[in-house]
Amino acid sequence: MNMDSRTPDRLREIVGAPNVLTETVDLIPYGFDGTAALKEAAACVVFPETGEQVAAIVRLSRDHGLPVVTRGSGTGLSGGSVPVPGGIVLCLVRMDRIVEIDAANLTMLCEPGVLTKSIDDAAAPLGLFYPPDPGSMKISTIGGNVANNSGGLRGLKYGVTRDYVMGLEVVLGDGSICWLGSKCVKDVAGYSMKDLFVGSEGTLGVITKVLLKLLPRPKAKRTLLATYDSMEDAARTVSKIIEGRIIPCTLEFLDRSTCQCVEDFAKVGLPTGAEAVVLMETDGHPAVVEEEAARMAEVARENGALTVEMARDEAHALRLASARRSAFAALARIRPTTILEDVTVPRSKLPDMVKFIGRMASEHGLRIATFGHFGDGNVHPTFLTDERDEAEMVKVEAAMEAIFEHTIQLGGTITGEHGVGLAKKRFLPGQFDEGSMGLLRQVKQALDPDGLLNPGKIFD
């Protein structure tokens, strides 16, 4: 159903006139997210400031058969917050309050529009720590992180967003509000419903509050950067580190193409002739950190590292770490369109995966840079292209499809942290069997029988 002319006025009655956008020029930024080549004009954008307003908007949408697409900062990389024709874009960035930090129970209660980095910044003065650190942490919102179960550079040691969600307030498809979870470390009462909404990409409900677990802040950290003339040596180093019972907080890699782009962009002193660069970080008790850093440097040298550089101080560590954190920004300068993809394979299959990506780039005449989270097998093949070149985009699609198929053949998954959204839903049946796809649809039907919550995302 298309939105009628009275809907914006009804929305203004709920949230106030300044919180509803309908003018074409104002709607333009809300017609896309961080995913290349996926765009749809928004009909209306509304900015609620409370959970009760969200519930009223969802009830209005249900009464009039209008789709609702929930949005945060719009940094998503799967098209999950791209509007649906004739629907409401529900933007939660003004619900940005940290409600409570409970140092006694190591928790934080916040609204979905709080920026991810702001959560860790707020915890730091109390000696606490929020580990998940997606590359977009300075601008992405915690609601979007929860909806997509975002990962980050520290995922190997600390896990992903799901591991830190203790409770959620959710508005369901009928406009009712429910609370899921608690501050209790042990809580097995009933189904673990909160986990159903983590990673649901806005298709099952709208998250309006998040109860997060915090950790004591690590007392020390050491950062190392190793270079290699082969990806196999780099991967073997990672395997040997973990085999040696060391679990670093960060084990990241960049291929030669990415290194060249990052060095041109950030001037951090990267060796642009190396086939692979591995960033390693360990944190914890100072004595343990020093021991683990020394051992990782030793393992790197034993497994073919050309150079191993250990950060002298915090400023040097930040400079080394910026080599990885600036990868996407550096690559985005090269061509008009940058498509940052996301696949995950077992760690032992990483060299195979990286080689295959290189082969696809060569076979299709494309430029694909590769970087990612070596420690957890998460690879980001990054296509440097131009979406205006239709012939080249056909090649991009062919290479991308081959990469997803190969990922599944290696026992991997089509997404480790970006989500399915619009961009990958056609590939999901290749990973899931019919029974699994049927179960997804049953859950969607049970919680959103009218099909109005982010319709067309994850599956049709």
Query: Which topology of the largest domain does CATH recognise?
Result: Uridine Diphospho-n-acetylenolpyruvylglucosamine Reductase, domain 3
Please compute the radius of gyration using only Cα atoms: 22 Å
Distance between the termini: 17 Å
CATH architecture of the largest domain: 2-Layer Sandwich
Uncertain residue ranges:
none
Q: Would you state the CATH class of the largest domain? A: Alpha Beta
Oligomer: single chain
Strand content of the residues, in percent?
15-25%
Any idea how many domains? 4
Question: Helicity, in percent?
Answer: 25-40%
Give the tally of β-strands: 19
Please tell me the overall pLDDT: 94
Shape: globular
Largest sheet: 8 strands, antiparallel
Given helix and strand content, the structural type is alpha+beta
